[in-house]
Design goal:
Elements: H1 7-16, H2 29-45, H3 50-57, H4 63-78, H5 85-96, H6 99-110, H7 119-130, H8 134-137, H9 140-149, H10 153-161
Length: 162
């Protein structure tokens, strides 16, 4: 290890050892969603702070995605917006998920019912679609209500009486 390396250089070198996924920005919305899931899982596993996530994510963007982020980042900084991981993700959704895709996922979330899914599958689907229902994700009470209301009747009754 280079003793003259700055802390961010050391962090970047260590991060790259995990071979984090890259994004060109020309992928489909489904592939962009998968990339974001993968990079977020890696960040979670490494227990990276928001600050580290924001510093490192730009290194995983290439071509169209890189140009988009450099431009977006400059615009946010110019407006005095603090660039957090939440801000990055909101901007990412705006750019790489067309309105029709977001609306479709939002509608699927609004109509999500447990049905034939076991509870683990229902939780996974709920969590995946939640990112497209910002109005629900911002309120713990709204999230709980939406989750419970989608449960099968026998589980709903058990949860409401428990």
């Amino acid at each position: 290890m280079d003793v003259t390396a700055t802390p961010i250089e050391t962090l970047l070198k260590k991060f790259q050892l995990f071979r984090p996924p890259t994004l060109k920005g020309t992928e489909s919305a489904v592939e962009c969603e998968s990339w974001l899931d993968d990079i977020e899982m890696l960040f979670d596993s490494l227990e990276y702070t928001d600050e580290r996530r924001v510093k490192l994510v730009g290194h995983q963007l290439q071509k169209v995605a890189k140009n988009w982020w450099l431009t977006t980042k400059r615009a946010l900084e110019h407006r005095g917006t603090e660039i957090t991981w939440k801000v990055f993700k909101a901007e990412f959704y705006q750019r790489f998920f067309p309105v029709s895709y977001r609306k479709d996922k939002g509608a699927k979330f609004a109509n999500l019912r447990q049905g034939q899914l076991n509870i683990e599958e229902y939780v996974a689907k709920f969590s995946t679609l939640l990112r497209f229902a910002v109005h629900v994700a911002e309120s713990d009470e709204a999230m709980v209500d939406q989750f419970i209301n989608g449960l099968n009747p026998e589980i709903f009754t058990f949860v409401n009486t428990g």
